[in-house]
Amino acid sequence: MARESLRHRVLLSLGVALAVFFGATVIALEWSLAQSLGRARDEVLDTQLMALIAVAEPVEGAHTLDVPEPPDGRMRTPASGLYAEIRDARGATVWRSPSALGIGFDAPPGGAPGARQRWTDDGREGPGLAAGSMTVEWEFDDGATAAFRFVVAQSLAPWRDQQRAFRLGLVGWFAILAIATLAVLAVVLRRVMRPLGRIEREINEMENARRERLSTDWPEELRGVATNLNALLGRERERQRRYQESLANLAHSLKTPLAAIRTVLPETGERPPENLDAVRGALARMDEIIGWQLRRAGAVGAADAVGIAPVAVAPVAVDLAATLDKVYASHELRCELDIPPTLHFRGDQGDLQEMLGNLLDNAWKYGRRRVRCLARASAPGWLELRVEDDGPGLDPERASEALARGARLDESRPGQGIGLAVVNELVRAYGGEVAVEQSSLGGAAVRLTLPAA
C-alpha cells in the first residue's frame, strides 16, 4: 500500500484539527446562545405576568378576578403559543385566556405571595412550554382578601427554532470556512512543496545520466540538503575516478617490473639466474606499487564524509612515534611532540595515520638526532600539522618533484619514492595543502593543512 503524500497528511491533519476546533466552538456558542435565550424568555414571561396582573379586575359582587381585555393580542388567538390563566387559592381556574382553550398545563405548588416561579413543561404543545407564575394577595373593595396565582406560559417552539437556525447557520458557515481554509492551504502547500518535486525530478535526471549535480538555487530549508547531496555525489564520483585511475596506473606501473623479471628469468632447462636480487627488487617494487595504488584508491578523502567521528591528533602521533622508536632504535633520535589534546582531525583515522606515519617515517629515516611534530589550529575549520627533522633537508624548489609518485631525491636510502605521493594524494582529497619547507632544525619540514573538527 502506497504511503500518502506529505500534502495529504498535512491537509488531513488540519482537517481533523479544524473539525475538532469548529465543533467545540459550535458547542460553546450554542450553549452561550441557549443561556441568552433562556434569560430573554424569562424576561418575556415576567413582562407578561406584570401586564396580566395590571389588567386583572375584580368581578362585581364576587371575590374573584376577571380579565376583560388580555394584555397581548396572542392571548385571544387559540393555539397562538402564548397562554395565561388565573387560579384561586384552591388551585381552581378562575380565568383562562382564549388562546389556552383545550390546552392544560401543569404547575408546581404555588409559593408565598410575591414569590415568582419558573418551570418548563416538555410534555405540552409539541416542543413544550416555558411557564412562570406569581402569587398575589388581592384586596377587594369590601376589605376581604384572597390569594390568586397568575400563570403565563409560552411555547418553546419559537425559541428552539431560533436556536436550531443559529446552529445550522453556524455549522454551515464554519463548514464553508473550513473548506476555504483547506483549499487555500492546498494551494499554499502546492507552492511550498514545489521545490521537493523539483529536487525529485533532478535526482531522477541524475539517475538517467541527464544531469551531473543538483542545482544550487534552493530555498534555505533545502539548500543544506542539496549541498550535502552534491557533496556526497562528488565524493562518490571522485572515489570511482580514483579506483579507475588507480587500476590504470597499477596496470601501467607493473609493466616495467614484469619486463625486468621476464628478462632475468631463465628459459626452460637453463640454470637459475645469478641476479636473483634483481628479481627480488622488482617484486618488492611491485608490492610497493600495488599497496600504494590500493591505499590511494580506498582513501576516504572527504572532510565532510558522513558518519565519520572526529579523530584526536595527539594519540595518533604518540602511537606512531612509539612504534618508530622501536623500528629505528639504532638511530637514537629524540622526538618532540607539541600537539594540543583538544585538536581533532575531521576525517578518517586511517587516513591520518597514513599521512602522519609517512611523514614521521621519513623524518626518522633522514633525521640525525632530532624529530619534531607540531600541530595547531589555523584558520576556522582547519588545522596545521608540521613534521621536521635535522637531516640533510629538501630543496623547496624541488618540492613538487618530491611529491610526485616514484620520485626519489636521495637514491642512497632504500624506498620506492611513493610515501610523500600518498600524503599528497590524501591531503588533496581532503581539500588541504602540502608544503615542503626548510626546518629550523636544519633539515626538511613538511607542513599539512587539513580540516579540523
Which stretches are low in confidence, meaning pLDDT under 50 for 5 or more residues running?
Answer: 406-417
CATH-derived architecture of the domain at 311-451: 2-Layer Sandwich
- Structural class of the secondary elements? alpha+beta
Quaternary state of this entry equals single chain
Beta fraction of the residues?
15-25%
- Characterize the overall form: rod-shaped
Write out the strand line-up for the largest beta sheet, numbering strands in chain order. 4-3-7-6-5
- Estimate the helix proportion, in percent: 40-55%
Question: What does the largest sheet look like?
Answer: 5 strands, antiparallel
The whole-number mean of residue pLDDT values reads 81
Q: What distance lies between the first and last C-alpha atoms, to the nearest angstrom?
A: 44 Å
Determine and state the CATH class of the domain at 311-451: Alpha Beta
CATH superfamily (homologous) name of the domain at 311-451: Histidine kinase-like ATPase, C-terminal domain
Question: What is the number of E strands?
Answer: 14
The arrangement of helices and strands along the chain is HEEEEEEEHHHHHEHEEHEEHHEE
Q: Quickly count the helices.
A: 10
According to CATH, the fold-level topology of the domain at 311-451 is Heat Shock Protein 90
Gyration radius from CA atoms, angstroms: 51 Å
